[in-house]
Design brief:
By secondary structure, the protein is of the alpha+beta class. The chain contains 2 helices and 2 strands; from the N terminus they run αββα. The chain has helices at residues 11-16, 67-77, and strands spanning 53-55, 64-66. It is elongated and about 50 Å long. The model has no long low-confidence stretch (mean pLDDT 87).
Length: 81
């Protein structure tokens, strides 16, 4: 029996790694609907304080955006804001 843990990278992590780690798209597909096996999901979303400046952790660029502004941009982009 296979046991796995999957860690999905979010948009803020993609931003600060300059896309070295890619954000995953959210989707749920039940490949085995006829199976009686249980499947568990425990999502945990971690957001920095709104005033935190998000900047690259892989280079010395001075580019940054506040966590608040970045989140607002993403919510507008996916039409949730």
């Amino acid at each position: 029996k296979s046991k796995s843990i999957v860690c999905n990278i979010g948009d803020m992590m993609q931003l600060v790694t300059r896309s070295q780690l890619k954000s995953t798209s959210h989707r749920v597909i039940d490949h085995n609907a006829s199976s009686s096996a249980s499947r568990y999901s425990m999502p945990f979303f971690l957001h920095p304080s709104p005033e935190i400046e998000l900047c690259s952790i892989v280079d010395d660029s001075d580019d940054s955006i506040s966590a608040h502004d970045f989140l607002e941009e993403r919510l507008r982009a996916i039409k949730l804001y």
